[in-house]
Amino acid sequence: MSEAVLILGATSAIARATAVAFAKRGNALYLASRDLDELRRSAADLRLRYGVEVNYGLFDAEATNTHENFFNSVIEQMQELSGVVLAFGYLGDQQAARDFSVGEKTITINFTGAASILSHCANYFEPLKRGFIIGISSVAGDRGRQSNYVYGAAKGALSLYLQGLRNRLHPSGVRVITIKPGFVDTAMTYGLPGMFLVASPQAVGESIASSPGKSADVVYLPWFWRYIMLIIKHIPEPIFKRLKL
Description:
CATH class: Alpha Beta
Shape: globular
Number of domains: 1
Largest sheet: 7 strands, parallel
Structural class: alpha/beta
């Protein structure tokens, strides 16, 4: 079997585009999400179009007690992995800032669930002294803004987790890459106010798939978001707290 990549949250627009980009490179794939019917269709399409091995299975980010068995079943089916892409996320809504029962779901999916499954991925790759872990965070995690600070806090925590994981796994030769997309044209962002400089999932997916072959540890997509967020992070707090962002 060719080098295999596990994609977590494989039914999102960015994940689909990333799967296509890896399939074009000849990688075998394991697609995981909560929607088995959609996974079945995606797997069949990728096999037909690119002639690669594609398996799939049920994965629920919130059900952390199932993550160890899930990951073991992936290894059993794929024999070995060359990399993992963590692509799931949950935006939530403004109610998350006022009702913690809503905000808790945002935090659990974007951070707690991510940290849970990545712990198993890290423990797998570390003794092998190879492989890569790509975590899709967000520019929203770079500074807390009133419009989405619960989501931003969870993604900010994920970015810090990936940073620490990168520090831990570097001596083992395992790459840990943090992807920070700006606005991407997906179902999760459809209809949101204030959208600008919107990227296509295809362009973002191609950049994600090519990132293990490059040197950058933190990748903003598209690239100009690095400088947009640099400006936003350096706005003095007395001014920033008065802005409607």
